[in-house]
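User: As part of a screening pipeline, I want to sanity-check one entry by hand. Below is the sequence and the SMILES for zinc ion. Please return the complex as structure tokens so I can compare it with the automated output.
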Amino acid sequence: MPLLVRHPAPYPTESLLGYVLRVSEDNGYSSPWSVYRLAGLKSREMKAAGVRLEKLARVTNWPSEKLDAIAYSAPPGQPRSSRLLGLPVLPQELNLTHPRFCPRCVREKGFLEAHWDLALMVACPVHRCLLISSCPQCGHRLRWFRHGLLECECGGDLSDCELSSVSEAEASLLNMIQKQALAYPPNASNPMGLPQDQLMAMGMRSMLLAIRTIAKHRILADGTGDSKKDQDIVSAASRVLVEWPANFIALLEDIGRQLPADTSGGVGKQFGGIYRGLFRNKGMGDSKHTEFLRVAFLDFAMNHWGRGYVDHKIIQKLGELAQNDFSRRQSLPPR
Ligand SMILES: [Zn+2]
Ligand SMILES: [Zn+2]
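Assistant: Here is the complex for your manual check:
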């Protein structure tokens, strides 16, 4: 089998699709098609999530384990998941068909980092650049089958950075998602007051679910925005998560204001939608990692709401310390 002339090593935080594009560009090809063809991959075998790594490994001259570390295929025993740098994520969290990225990040690093493969990465938290998703020259949407990391198939230059209007809150949320994806530690400083340690402890998949659930209910309560648009999701979630838990409590108050005036009964039932989404969804993972959400919910129920009663189940799920604290302050609800 003919080998490539250059065999750049994949970076540990590199996007797999970005890596193949970089290999292609390094070898002077006009598109990654050539690399896939050399590897003997048929077009039906090029589905990003299931690409035959051993074939790709042979032409790039790197062991397939090295490529597997940045692959998207399902982790062992979790056939319905995908992976990003080894972290399980739901397939719908990945955006592998419509590439977009921050031109300045790519210029500085010299490769495409894997967090750009996440659907929620709608802006660059570092440079505040507008992500590039179409070619400024031909106007076409970017494709993986282009000339280079920063060159469209029409020859258009993709390295310009236009500043975008991403808020402090959005940038801090995106920064946290990026850190989680690349397995970097959380920021030492946290000026926006996100519950970043707690969210990151949930793990990638549950953290993204929490962000989406919180965003959905902020958008519902606002009555504006589109809970299917990644941009709107990031914007809404960031407004709730900054200065934790004040804005989460404000969201619950807004939801409460829209409930019928005669609402009573358990608060879990009254706030059914968001309550079920955060506390009854298996996808949220280990209940000790969602304790910070439960504590904030209880804080709201006991100190801000005052209608109905707090369900036993919520308190039972709390860790011992928080449980004692709440039981002391709480007049017990009817059994
Ligand atoms: Zn950037
Ligand atoms: Zn173009």
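Points to compare against the pipeline: Residues 215 and 233 are 5 Å apart (CA to CA). Strands lie at 82-84, 87-89.
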